[in-house]
Amino acid sequence: QVQLVESGGGLVQAGGSLRLSCAASGSIFVINAMGWYRQAPGKTRELVATITRGDSTNYADSVKGRFTISRDNAKNTVYLQMNSLKPEDTAVYYCNAVLVNGYQFWGQGTQVTVSS
Prior knowledge:
Helix content: under 10%
Order of helices and strands: EEEEEEEEEEE
Mean pLDDT: 94
Distance between the termini: 40 Å
Shape: globular
Number of helices: 0
């Protein structure tokens, strides 16, 4: 079993910054890609950013230019640097990992709240 543990969420004022971390651990595995998704109350879960083993990145249009995803392969950790935060960024942020065999794992989520 693979476990994903997120950290770094919290309450921040509009225009501020937060850095989320997600560390993967557990059985022997090879991760093909990791990413961040978010879900606001009453909304469906949506993609925020992804990064592949080859360091290709993809961002939602709503966060492009403000958020940066990065990966430390030695530590099996993915980060999300969030700058210029807006109230509409308020959501539970979930870490995701896709193994080379196609299996997916999710973290339990971390709350990000942006006040106006």
